[in-house]
Every structure is written in structure tokens, then in C-alpha cells.
Amino acid sequence: MQQVLANCSASISELKKNPSALLKASAGEAIAILNHNKPAAYLVPAETYEWMMEQLDDLALAQLVEERRQQRDDAIEVSLDDL
Questions:
Q1: pLDDT (tens digit, 9 = 90+) per residue, 25-57?
Q2: Which residue of 6, 46, 54, 74 is surrounded by the most CB atoms within 10 Å?
Q3: Cβ atoms of residues 25 and 34 within 8 Å
Q4: What is the CATH number of domain 8-70?
Q5: Which residues of 22-33 are buried (b: 16+ CB within 10 A; e: fewer)?
Q6: Would the pTM of this model clear 0.85, i.e. be above it?
Q7: Do 48 and 31 contact (CB within 8 A), yes or no?
């Protein structure tokens, strides 16, 4: 059985009937959209989605920084006066 990763769930039929009521009832939490009692999608508030995208961007930047730190031995030291 597939795990539902939300405290609130609704069927696709419920979503079609009244999406605004579902969003209001979820109180800003993610909603698992079920198809035949299995998660088909997750509906998240816009603010949550934007936060998640920022976190993913930050993670990608942190990985890039770490990769470049490991290449530090290959770096060439340059003085600002030489430039």
C-alpha cells in the first residue's frame, strides 16, 4: 500500500466539485488527491510551493559551493594588485 504524505485527503471527484472548499478546509496544509484510494497528486498552497522551490534552489547552490570547495587545490592564487 502506498503511503499518503498529508494529513488531509480528498478524491478527484471532491476536487472537481468544489476546489475552493477543499483549500479552505485544509487550513493551508497539503491535500492528498486520491484516485481509487491511492495518491494521484498533492495539492499544496501557493506559499508552500514557493517556499519549497526556494529550498530546492538553496540546496542546488549549496551543492555547487561544496563541489567548488573540493576543487580548491586546483585554484590559482591571484593578488588584487596583480589584476
A1: 888 899 999 999 999 999 998 988 999 999 999
A2: 6
A3: no
A4: 3.40.1620
A5: bbeebeeebbbb
A6: no
A7: no
